[in-house]
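ugh ok so i messed up the first submission bc i forgot one of the chains. this is the corrected input, ALL of the components this time, i swear. 233 residues overall. if the numbers dont match what u have on ur side tell me asap before i send this to the collaborators (the ones from the other lab, u know who)
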Amino acid sequence: AQSVAQPEDQVNVAEGNPLTVKCTYSVSGNPYLFWYVQYPNRGLQFLLKYITGDNLVKGSYGFEAEFNKSQTSFHLKKPSALVSDSALYFCAVRDMIYNQGGKLIFGQGTELSVKP
Amino acid sequence: GAVVSQHPSRVICKSGTSVKIECRSLDFQATTMFWYRQFPKQSLMLMATSNEGSKATYEQGVEKDKFLINHASLTLSTLTVTSAHPEDSSFYICSAKRDWSSYNEQFFGPGTRLTVL
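and heres the new structure output, hopefully the right one now
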């Protein structure tokens, strides 16, 4: 079965420190991987994606993610966290099963809290 | 570009009434749209896949007669919650898959907060 796991419900980081939000996946074939951020009472905002090519993907707001095929991971990172980065983060993988319309499978979400 | 809107952003209704939520892709065509439901601080639960000109595909456990979906044009899908009850109160989010995108990129609406009294 295809799935996405975010093992941490919450990540706490001090402002200025690097942050990592973890994501592992299980799919058949080559994955299309995505990270989204959600602020309170808002929809999801796209951060970055991995389709093919370089394993290190750079996205919006200084975020980046590294695709690691051997570890089936796609961890989200940022060198220096900001208080404004505090939000709910979702990792997602495209459902690769034929005729599923390209729907996304979401992880459970990780709440990032950045303290001053 | 690639903006998706939802209307209304917030709705409060009485138990037993029906509520319609609109999802529009403003600057691109979307043959396929998705409807999600989200509880506080939880992940998105896919309810159904909406296809222009055909019936929606509902996920297991989602009542199709309760959550009516209509996708009448390439830029508009509607979700109608029929005979709403307090347990239907939730945050509903739609996304639109841009046609002609090589990897079926989805764009999300801002969400609709439904409160049923």
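quick check: The CA atoms of residues 53 and 116 of chain A lie 36 Å apart. that seems consistent at least. Chain A touches chain B through 23 residues (CB under 8 Å).
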